[in-house]
Sequence to fold (265 residues):
Amino acid sequence: MTHNEKRQHWLKEGAIGLGTGVLYGVTSVAVGHPFDTIKTKMQAQEGFIKGPGMGALPPLLGSGVYRSTQFAVFEALYTKWDNEVGREEIPHTQGVQVRVVGAAVAAATARSLLECPIEFAKVARQTGQDWKLGQVYRGFGLQLGRTGGVMTTYFVTVDAIRRHHPSVFQTKIGQFLASAGAATFGFWVVWPLEVLKNQVQAGTPVGPRGREATLVDRVLALGRGGLAGLYRGILPGTLRSVVSNGFSMVVMIEAQKWVTQLGLR
Fold:
């Protein structure tokens, strides 16, 4: 669904998605990390922002892994479920098929399991804090909710654009705008979870002194801040989402074409 090429066996599509997804992940970090650092500092830590490249190594190494896994799982299951049940359209969704949502949820879950430790290390590095191996799954529930919301929205939106406006993906600017728009919309939907996730992973002090802040403490604190609190860091986060997901999609679609031209599909 994330490419225009003729599909082969579902395992082959998964393997191709694994390979081309690495390029998506590395490109995403390479062009978007400075904005991501600013966003995280705004969400989880007060004070002067310095070193926009801080914390780049964990996501640079890991982004290719969890994003390639995400696309591998989605493409494999989307292809495997190309049957009567999988093609069943969900009522009142303008033609969204069951397999799109099912594959998106599975892909988001697989990504979250790999992404949470990497995100934890990245946030700790961006906010200048030490961390221990036993802490790497702190905030996993929020990570899963945030990633599940983003990725399901992303794949459903890209699918809708392909079905209703297929010509968009015939040009690089169209590919850029479709992916950037779908991903950014997904992040806007779950942004409060993104803020909470970063605060939990950074250990941002909230609530009564002398004890670790609970999730309820953090939710109440965000609520007291109104929309400004719920959507803290939205500007740099939006810029990061646009440039990273836009350029990454263009790179991945080109890679999919190369795979076909090399006779591997």
Observations:
- The domain at 10-202+235-261 is CATH 1.50.40.10 (Mitochondrial carrier fold).
- Residues 47-55 have pLDDT under 50 and may be disordered.
- Helices lie at 10-44, 57-80, 98-126, 140-164, 172-202, 215-224, 226-230, 234-261.
